[in-house]
Amino acid sequence: MNGEAMKTTFSNRLNEDIVRTLEFAIRDFGIANISVLAEQIRKRNEVENVALEDIVEKLAERAILRGAAIEFDSASLEYYEDRPRALS
After folding, report:
1. Domain of life, per the record (predicted)?
2. Distance of alpha carbon 51 from the chain centroid
């Protein structure tokens, strides 16, 4: 090992889910709660067996590139779960 992290490959479907979920959250709430959104994405794509941490990283990268307001607060899960449009 040369100290490099292994790069996770995301399927087209998973990438599209990340982009779509991020766009819905920004449009509907004005902010992307990375922890909550990543968990929702992971659950919808369990068959892909991608680690939550990898989804969090990809989602955060895209949110930053998008210039979106972000937060990392899993305590607000109930707030987002009551608004399924941003999560499905």
Report:
1. Bacteria
2. 12
